[in-house]
Design brief:
Layout: E1 17-19, E2 25-29, E3 50-52, E4 55-57, H1 59-74, E5 80-91, E6 96-107, E7 112-117, E8 123-127, E9 140-147, E10 153-161, E11 183-187, E12 198-205, H2 207-212, E13 219-228, E14 234-241, E15 245-254, E16 257-270, E17 277-290
Antiparallel strand pairs: 1-13, 2-9, 3-4, 5-6, 5-17, 6-7, 7-8, 9-10, 11-12, 12-13, 13-14, 14-15, 15-16, 16-17
Length: 304
């Protein structure tokens, strides 16, 4: 999806955490991806910074560089993407699981999509399912994901606002301290600074951030970011939170475009007074991408 470019303070930019509705459906809202990882202390990072091109790079800065790269690539998103997605939906305690196979054509500018249930099911207008392939998982956004008792599933993201960080490398100051406001960032044990390796940043929200959340039982936070060192782009983004919530997005390059190729969501849903619970998950794999220059369906044409 070509997200709106939001103007934001590069020092107080937003880092994402999400809220959900206390129901069988879930709505997650990411306040701002810049606030996620800024700590109140100067040394918000607990592990040694890594070497990059003969310079010391703290994990906070590596996160910011990746967020800027992701935001920039969204501005170059193709106007239309068509794809097939297979979503495996599971509710183990009910002994239910099934695959939802859909063909989707999406207009990336506003996420308007034509969704065809395969092989010959319903055809409807909606939003890119389950998330549009050009979705920026490091942005501010709202995620709505619903899994029903009969393993039916609906999902989409909206209100997407990419993060933009200011480059302070040329500020002229002798020492510049950069840290994420809402998270402590540190390099994971498997992180590599090799040119063909992967940088792995682990993110831990500060306690004061969690205490300020209006709905702590329905909020989740950034947990991990894996970056492709060769391109500076995200490969894997993970969020987690209360009620066993996990939201993960994986990326890869397809015909020159950086796209979502896999998405995973799971949580435990509780009944009234938290009596009874149901764990549900949905795992989506994308393939058969195409990038038409013109609207692949008349309903995706701009209104005259």
């Amino acid at each position: 999806m070509r997200a709106r470019t939001g103007e934001r303070d590069p020092v107080a930019s937003d880092e994402g955490f999400f809220h959900r509705r206390p129901s069988f459906g879930a709505t997650r809202t990411s306040p701002l991806a810049d606030e996620r990882n800024r700590g109140p202390a100067a040394n918000g990072s607990t592990k040694e910074p890594r070497q990059e091109h003969n310079a010391i790079v703290a994990p906070d800065i590596a996160f910011q560089h990746c967020a800027n790269a992701a935001a920039a690539i969204i501005e170059k998103a193709p106007p239309f993407v068509t794809y097939r997605v297979t979503t495996h939906v599971s509710a183990p305690s009910l002994g239910k699981e099934r695959d939802v196979l859909r063909s989707v054509s999406v207009r990336t500018r506003d996420d308007l999509a034509v969704i065809q249930d395969l092989p010959k099911g319903a055809n409807q207008l909606g939003r890119g399912f389950p998330v549009t392939p050009t979705f920026d998982a490091l942005s501010q956004f709202t995620l709505t994901w619903r899994v029903g008792a009969h393993t039916e599933v609906s999902a989409y993201v909206h209100d997407v606002k990419p993060l933009h960080y200011e480059d302070v490398s040329g500020s002229g100051a002798d020492v510049v301290v950069v840290r994420l406001r809402q998270y402590r960032a540190e390099y994971a044990a498997d992180s590599s600074d090799a040119p063909d390796g992967k940088t792995h940043i682990h993110l831990v929200p500060y306690d004061f951030v969690k205490r300020q959340v209006a709905k702590p039982d329905s909020t989740f936070f950034l947990s991990d970011l894996v970056i492709d060192n060769a391109t500076g782009m995200p490969l894997h983004v993970r969020y987690e939170g209360a009620d066993d919530i996990q939201f993960e997005v994986d990326y890869d390059r397809v015909d020159g475009h950086w796209l979502v190729t896999h998405a995973h969501y799971e949580e435990t849903i509780y009944g009234p007074l938290r009596i009874g619970r149901l764990h549900v998950s949905a795992d989506a794999k994308y393939d058969s991408f195409a990038f038409p220059d013109a609207a692949p369906d008349p309903r995706l044409r701009d209104a005259n």
